[in-house]
Specification:
Blueprint: H1 2-15, E1 32-35, E2 38-42, H2 55-68, H3 83-96, E3 100-104, H4 107-118, E4 124-128, H5 133-142, E5 145-149, H6 154-162, E6 169-174, H7 186-195, E7 199-203, H8 218-221, E8 229-234, E9 244-248, H9 250-259, H10 261-264, H11 271-285, H12 288-304, E10 311-312, E11 319-325, H13 327-339, E12 342-343, E13 346-347, E14 357-362, H14 369-382
Parallel strand pairs: 2-12, 4-5, 4-6, 6-7, 7-8
Antiparallel strand pairs: 1-2, 3-9, 8-9, 10-11, 11-14, 13-14
Helix pairs in contact: 2-11, 3-11, 4-5, 12-14
């Protein structure tokens, strides 16, 4: 019976220590979390600048609801597009130094819209093997030939581009890889795109707000500009709210608005959110002290960890992964940390490759140096 197949599948997940479980937070997003009545020091969120619980941003969201109501009422191309969304999109384009931007409900929706809008049968997508699942799914939806090159392997990518006979080519990469924390070689990727007449799609979910002057992201971090760049940033991580956007050349964004099915055929986000995000952009731009503090926390963590058998991956970003390897062992270490009232998520396949299960430490500007030292002291004591 079909239900028996499901039950067998769930049992298999348990055997392989791969079943995922939700934990219900009883507090707002913060390093000071409460779960089942128990206080925890959390290193889990992507709220890199600590804006998710910023009172100014919460008040802007409430003000937006008072001004614009609680819902958009329709898809953007019917009647769900509002003047405040125009204002946000113009602000995002100016912030990123592009001609135009288009707001989406989530980063997943944005990525699902981009790749099928710019490629199809007869085209070829060249994707880093460690790209986020949304980019993988988007490539499959596009029905183009999908070529996945080894992580940040420019030689393999160049070879594949040179031998491609596709009419249109897209190079697609995370900017900051969400489970490793490393930064893609964007200047070299853009050079390859120019040499082989390809688009370059950059998913900057974990770089926007954190990297670059004024938090303008990974592309600004490298000082890049090109009509070939299709830039996606999310607004639910460092921006502290929700949503996403795509920025780029005006014709590129117009084409995306016409062809992205995940934009055309979905109800638009509430306009109140755009009102709040205008506040978030100002907080990001004025957030130099937050970013400086974040970099200091990264230095504290990397300088005080003393691991022998576990491996701290090299990362200059708030994502600081410790690879343990075995699924069950990683779960056990995460459980031991929770016994010490420290919450660090255990990340297992298929999110990461088999044999590379890890603790994914996420630092935020809301953490203190004392928080980080408590974490490093505990990890040093638990490590074999």
């Amino acid at each position: 019976m079909l239900i028996d197949d499901l039950r067998a599948g769930l049992a298999d997940l348990d055997i392989r220590a791969l079943r995922r479980r939700r934990r219900s937070l009883e507090t707002q997003c913060s390093p000071r979390a409460v779960i089942d009545g128990r206080p925890m020091l959390a290193f889990c969120s992507n709220d890199y600048l600590g804006l998710a619980s910023e009172p100014l941003l919460a008040e802007a969201l409430a003000e937006g609801a008072r001004l614009w109501g609680s819902g958009s009422g329709a898809s953007a191309l019917v009647s769900g597009h509002y003047a405040v969304v125009d204002e946000l999109e113009q602000a995002l384009a100016g912030f990123c130094g592009t001609e135009r931007a288009l707001a989406f409900g989530t980063g997943y929706l944005a990525n699902l819209g981009i790749l099928p809008a710019f490629s199809g049968r007869g085209d070829e997508i060249f994707a880093d093997r460690l790209n986020h699942a949304s980019l993988v799914d988007a490539a499959l939806l596009a029905r183009a030939t999908l070529t996945r090159y080894p992580h940040c392997d420019l030689d393999r990518l160049e070879h594949a581009l040179a031998h491609s006979t596709a009419r249109r080519k897209l190079i697609v990469s995370d900017a900051v890889f969400s489970m490793d924390g490393d930064i893609a070689p964007l200047p070299a990727l853009l050079e390859l795109a120019e040499r082989h007449d390809a688009w370059l799609v950059v998913d900057d979910a974990h770089g926007f707000g954190v990297l670059g002057p004024g938090g303008r992201g990974s592309v600004a971090h490298f000082g890049l500009s090109s009509w070939r760049l299709i830039y996606m940033g999310t607004l639910g991580k460092a921006a502290g709210a929700a949503g996403a956007f795509v920025a780029g050349n005006a014709d590129v964004i117009e084409w995306l608005m016409q062809k992205a099915r995940s934009y055309v055929f979905t109800t638009a986000p509430p306009p109140a959110l755009s009102h709040a995000l205008l506040c978030s952009l100002r907080l990001i731009e004025d957030g130099t002290s937050r970013r400086n503090h974040l970099q200091a926390l990264i230095a504290t963590l990397t300088g005080h960890l003393d691991l022998q058998r576990w491996h701290l991956l090299s990362s200059r970003t708030p994502i600081q992964p410790i690879v343990i390897g075995d699924n069950q062992r990683t779960l056990d270490v995460a459980a031991r940390l929770q016994q010490e009232s420290i919450w660090v998520p255990a990340i297992r396949p298929p999110t990461v490759p088999v044999g590379s299960a890890r603790l994914r430490i996420s630092l935020t500007a809301a953490h203190t140096h004392e928080d980080v030292l408590r974490l490093t002291d505990t990890l040093n004591r638990l490590a074999p």
